[in-house]
Amino acid sequence: MHLLLIEDDLDLGRALQGALKAEGYSSEWLRRAADAPRSFHGSAVDCVLLDLTLGDGCGLDVLAQWRRAGHMVPVIVITARSALQDRLDGLDGGADDFVVKPFATEELLSRIRAVMRRHAQQASEQWRFGDLMIEPRRHAAQLGTEPLALSPREFHLLLELAREPGTVVSKSALSHRLEPLGDPVDFASIEVHVSNLRRKIGPARIRTVRGIGYLLAV
């Protein structure tokens, strides 16, 4: 999972990036509202941690711009503002969750997992698609009662498709999501990994939408 952190506090930003890395997440850290992306099309970002009080603007304005543009990326607001109206403004403004500083890192990580479960329309840490089960935190999957021997790349690919079940994910998006901090994965490699994954989970589970990308059938 790749997260975008928008936070102007140096100490908190460093601490959060360290905690995310320890959890196995990659992240990008920005400190200004002006540097926030205007679009998430083709982006590798799975979730945003957004501070409300930034040195050059308000995080709520950034969030409002994303939602007006139709971007549905999950957003967790992190802020020192604890008033009820601030929480209501954040949630009504399109935030998926609201965490008040100071907070325990373990709580934030748990909230990230919960938000991502809801985004994938899953009720627990075990994501189920018929007899296919995925456990993102354990990097494990099984078909029926049999564990699946997936390479790290195959598991990552399966997880990215499972985040939007029944929805086509373009090859371009997958190429960035599989290497969010490096060079995009070339399309030929993606095709090879998809072919290998189909052999292991069944060819009908991953459908090709010609000229666009792939979807996980549910």
UniProtKB/TrEMBL annotation:
The keyword 4Fe-4S does not apply. Residues 124-218 form the OmpR/PhoB-type domain. GO terms for cellular component: cytosol; protein-DNA complex. PROSITE patterns: OMPR_PHOB (PS51755), RESPONSE_REGULATORY (PS50110). InterPro entries: CheY-like_superfamily (IPR011006), OmpR/PhoB-type_DNA-bd (IPR001867), Sig_transdc_resp-reg_receiver (IPR001789), WalR-like (IPR039420), WH-like_DNA-bd_sf (IPR036388). Keywords: DNA-binding, Phosphoprotein. Residues 124-218 bind DNA. Residues 2-116 form the Response regulatory domain. PANTHER family: REGULATOR OF RPOS (PTHR48111), TRANSCRIPTIONAL REGULATORY PROTEIN CUTR (PTHR48111:SF36). This is Response regulator.
